[in-house]
Amino acid sequence: MKHFLRNTVIGNLLLYACFIPAVAQSFYTISGQVTDAATGEGIPFVSVAVKGQTTGTTSDVNGRYSLQIKQLSDSLLILSLGYRTRSYPILEQPKQVIDAQLQAAATKLQEVKVYAKGGDPAYRVIREVVRRRDQFNPVQLLGYQYDSYTKIEGYINNFAQQRKNGKKPGPINRLLGRLPAITDANGKPAIPVFVSETFSNFYARSNPDKIKEYVQKSRVTGVGVSDGGLISQLTGASFQQYNFYRNSLYVFRKDIASPIGKQWETIYTFRMKDTIALGQSTCYEIEFTPKRVTDLAFTGTVWIDTLSMSLSKIDARVGKQANINFVDELRVEQDWETLPSGLRFPTQTQLTIDTEQPTPRSPGAVIRFLTTAQNITENEPKEVGFYNPSIELADDFREADPNFWQHVRPDALSPNELRALNVVDSVRNVPFMKVAGEIIKLGVLGYKPLGKLNIELGPLLYSYASNNVEGQRFRLGLRTNTGFSRKWLLSGYLAYGTQDQQFKYNASIEYILSRKPWTVVGFRHTYDLERIGVSGDNIGNNSLFAAYSRFGTIRRPYFQDENLFYIRREMGRGFTQTLALRNRSFEPLFPFAFQPQAKDDDQRVRSTYTTTELISETRFAPDEVLLQNDNVRVSAGAVRKPIYTLRYTLGLRNVMGGDFAYQRIALGMNHSFRVGVLGRTYYSIGAGIIPATVPYPLLYSPLGNESSFYVGNAYNLMNYFEFINDRWASVQFEHNFGGLLFNRIPLLRQLKWRELITAKVLVGSVTADNLAMIPATNAAGQAVEGFSSLKQTPYLEVGYGINNIFKVLRVDAIHRLTYRDNVGRTGIPVTPFAIKVSGWMSL
């Protein structure tokens, strides 16, 4: 409060001074930028002081500073660690600009540590900062909003190095050397390959926690990307929210402990460095380092206001020794300011990622994110419905006059940044980079645009398969894009098997009724080969596993003719509601039959049937961020709160040929949370019941996995179609320690391996009526294949594994603890223990 009152008094004095004659002016303003004399880049956090006075300040992340003094001196001192100190004369003028250039120092200073009684005083300060966190944490606000400017730059660098024995750079590096480039901070050439600017209005509220970003203007240019809506949403402020008052920062799906979080004393060591002036505040300058260099933690400097014990500025880095992939250094620089309420708020954040070079002479890359907050309004939350959708694009977000960007930028761009904006267009049009860009888009999206037809070919992942039923399966898929229509989305595929000589096909059409709230209606017709136990209902969004399931031996195959009509609408507050009407047929290619119930008039044993279903699915994801990829909505996931799904299916008899009346209820929940220094836990819970008598293909079949690959949502030692249930409950658990143990073993810490454990439990049963529906033989006299069900003992498998092997591989050792001797009706013996591999890309 004292700090707030002091700033208010100073502000009133400055306001009053504006109305008195200039001869009575009591302040002098000195501003400018401190740059590296060799590279011209701004130097952050440089100390700027008036000679002979205690007044001073530090430069921001771009090297810019502004200083107000009451009394003139003869010179201004510029000091920064690693550079030679410079002094500049001060003129007798009310306002003056002094731009400073510093040269790198050739000598290194020896460290001198002086401790007060009882240890380094930095610990007393940080302990008080942690105690007062709730006083200054902006999450305490009922709501806030601000104007956000975000700039992202990507560069390829380190391609001009000489190889051993004086050899010239390799062919790729020589090719890169012929492209347009700028000069990086080390005075070496760097090729800009991505530049974006986004201006948006950002809103947030608490109770319930909601955020919304309204993107007013955005421009994106780069290799392999286009100025589309998806990129414009990913480059906005929603994905650049970093709050050091939280216990950890979630950076690119990595949890990095905050030096002023609850685990500060467990993870970090601190050292008091100095006391300096930052603007109108006097701050403690405290250095912090991880206790173990291999831990995923920050190294850097934090500036703490001496009066309020609140965060003023922080410069935090994660180096290559930490357990993080593909990164030489990750750096977060952040400025915090006091709001009228007394809370602190991050007004400028710069995140820099210097990527690791795969080999000593290969090119590297640097990515820089800059986010600023201006015109902050606090404690004026909007109605809850206002925050849906969480990211929204203005209709004219692509259209902006160049003067618009000059107006909304917080500071003028440096000469190198201006040149990057111009050079990136030249780079992306070079034939070699065009090809590279197309490969990037194909790998990310899976679709190949067909010229100017507004049609895309794909997804290529499903283009070919080989199995015992179809032989060689070839598939051709097409879809339209927004160039075709911003309301209609058409897609489909045609597939053919060389062995069964059958055509399979799909045609779908979707129409966007409204974009706010998001409302779509669609129809799909499909005729294709399916297999019991492996379907779209239980595979989910695992496209790799869905493609793999088309290969090899397909047991219990059948043809399905499906018609699906649906409508989906966002209801607000995280709810999404889907209603669907589905009609499908079952035509088995294996000995199958069912005996109708006694109450049915037709008691003949039958092998085919038709179902008509009315489906209601309610999805609740309170903090999920949804992106719009052209005419399709894409989930960016939820960070802190669970996602719930309730699905109710009603079978309609004698409607559109439906043979059965039944109900099916299924509930699921997915969530992840951090367990302090122990890592992060992921889990899912599911349960369901089918209180009806129906053929077993309509019951619940848990997803098994007979491949050599680990599948996250499958029971990895369960065979396909091993168990059938009409009531069930499941828990799937995985905990990643993030290298907690391996980081402490000298011979293993350099490998950056990460340990994990898994457990999956399923309980279930089947009623006697559903078992009684299976006759001994079908109409052709063939023995009918039945199924197995769980007994009172639950199915249980546990595992342990190592992730991040060679930075991309994961190996799981899995033990099946129950039903180890089960053969069941599949005829395939179970595997009680297996080693399974998978690929995972993460920082």
UniProtKB/TrEMBL annotation:
MF GO annotations: carboxypeptidase activity
Source organism, top-level taxon: Bacteria
SUPFAM superfamilies given in the database record: Carboxypeptidase regulatory domain-like
Record flagged with keyword Cell wall biogenesis/degradation: no
Pfam family, one: CarbopepD_reg_2
Record's signal peptide: 1-24
Family annotation (InterPro entries): CarboxyPept-like_regulatory, DUF5686
UniProt name for this protein: Carboxypeptidase-like regulatory domain-containing protein
Organism: Spirosoma validum
Organismal lineage: Bacteria, Pseudomonadati, Bacteroidota, Cytophagia, Cytophagales
